[in-house]
């Protein structure tokens, strides 16, 4: 199998890697939850998202939405009275990969709890 990365991996290579950027973003506490809510519940305004996610401050919701939008995973449409967020095709295509990681984690957590490796 050929290596995924040239070795040694430099700090500059790690910091400029597109995968590193996306992994940081999806590893952030609220990003995946917002993507799933927008996928399952359809486009949503800021206040609806704020009411839907318990324990998430408005400041962090704002930051999370901006981050997801900057990565092209959600869109933001503004009208004079309303701002609406929706998941994009890129966001929709990322979710199965994230869900697979979650399923892997659940499977392995059950194995570890039972003492299996």
From TrEMBL:
Domain HTH hxlR-type positions: 17-113
Q: Does the keyword Hydrolase apply?
A: no
Q: Does the keyword Nucleus apply?
A: no
Pfam families listed in its UniProt record: HxlR
Query: Which top-rank group of organisms is this from?
Result: Bacteria
Q: Which UniProt keywords apply?
A: DNA-binding, Transcription, Transcription regulation
Instruction: Name the chain's protein.
Output: HxlR family transcriptional regulator
Native species of this protein? Actinoplanes italicus
């Amino acid at each position: 199998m050929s290596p995924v990365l040239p070795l040694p991996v430099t700090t500059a290579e790690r910091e400029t890697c597109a995968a590193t950027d996306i992994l940081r973003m999806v590893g952030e506490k609220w990003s995946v939850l917002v993507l799933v809510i927008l996928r399952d519940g359809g486009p949503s305004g800021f206040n609806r998202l704020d009411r839907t996610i318990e324990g998430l401050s408005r400041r962090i919701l704002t930051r999370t939405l901006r981050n997801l939008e900057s990565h092209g995973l959600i869109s933001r449409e503004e009208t004079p009275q309303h701002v609406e967020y929706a998941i994009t095709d890129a966001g929709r295509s990322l979710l199965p990969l994230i869900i697979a990681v979650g399923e892997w984690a659940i499977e392995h957590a059950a194995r570890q709890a039972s003492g299996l490796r």
